[in-house]
Amino acid sequence: MLTFTFAQTEGAPTSVTEVRQTLQEILLQTWTDFIEHLPFIGVAVGVLLETWAVSKLAHVIADKSLGKTHMRRSLQDLALRLIAIAVWVIGILLAAIVIFPGVSPAKALGGLGIISMAVGFAFKDIFENFFAGILLLWRFPFENGDFIECGDVKGKVERIDIRMSQIRQTTGELVVVPNAYLFKNPVDVLTDQPKRRVTVMAGVSYDTDVDQAVEVIDGTLKSCSTVDQDRPIQVFPQAFGSSSIDIEVAWWTDPTPLDQRRSRGEVVSAIKKALDHHGIEIPFPYRTLTFKEPLPLQQTVN
């Protein structure tokens, strides 16, 4: 038969009553410490409120000052955000020093660094998008209002935030894109220049005078209102198609997707009318069928 003997630890409570009394003492001491620190907590809250007020005031002053410079709007937004972050970091450090009087600024900065590392590993994607947003505002050439195309996303940039960017697609949907996606992938800035070139292919039949067709198309584009007449209009025969001589037509127009569609529609309609007016055929596909053996002909007598 086994016998278990429990040794009583010196100073440990020996009954439920003593355990209850110990817990009450701990809670009472905690509450007493909290009451004693209430003034410090109140001062820390006041510091945070003053930080909020200073942040708003700094934003207004910096916005007016930067607005008088020739700095790009994206750089102005970046500077305003960095100023706000700096003010809040200083305010939070001061509040921490007030609540914990034994904490020095050096210790607070060291603790903040350790916390930042831990948070950085835990929220890697968030910080990746954060720094990508800073680089987008600082270096990238597109601004709010530009039309861009990145992968399957194509639309107007409505807002570039620190972590996400809002893009209004041409179909009306609002797409919220992580900044890291825009930073890592090629981005076509459609409105980077005041004009963009558009190209369409026209076809004329093989019995058409190609030089005449080129002259007709070139003259037609010079009468289109959406075609920029200050830039070259390029009309070149390009290839021998299966049913037609293919002619490449290129011109310059306004850069937005709507302007591109409007100009393309006007040019295609004008070319069709001009070719019909001059009797130049735009052929349907022709097919010539050749049989290996002669086909027998059968005559039906009524």
What can you tell me about this protein's structure?
With 302 residues, the protein is α+β, with helices and mostly antiparallel strands. The protein folds into three domains: 23-122, Helix Hairpins (Orthogonal Bundle), CATH 1.10.287; 140-189, SH3 type barrels; 196-277, Alpha-Beta Plaits (2-Layer Sandwich), CATH 3.30.70.100. The protein contains seven helices and eight strands; from the N terminus they run ααααββββαββαββα. It has helices at 16-67, 73-99, 105-122, 124-139, 179-184, 210-221, 257-277; strands at 147-150, 153-160, 164-169, 174-178, 188-189, 196-204, 234-240, 245-253. The protein has a five-stranded antiparallel beta sheet with strand order 4-3-2-1-5. Strands 6-8-7 form a three-stranded antiparallel beta sheet, with helices on one face. It starts with 15 loop residues before the first helix and ends in a 25-residue tail after the last helix. Mean pLDDT is 80; it is low at 1-7.
Report the biggest beta sheet as strand number plus sense, adding barrel if it closes.
5 strands, antiparallel
Tell me the number of helical segments per DSSP (H or I, 4 or more residues long): 7
Mean pLDDT: 80
**How many individual domains?**
3
Helix content: 40-55%
Short note summarizing the structure:
The protein is α+β, with helices and mostly antiparallel strands. It has helices at residues 16-67, 73-99, 105-122, 124-139, 179-184, 210-221, 257-277, and strands at 147-150, 153-160, 164-169, 174-178, 188-189, 196-204, 234-240, 245-253. Strand 7 and strand 8 (245-253) form a beta hairpin.
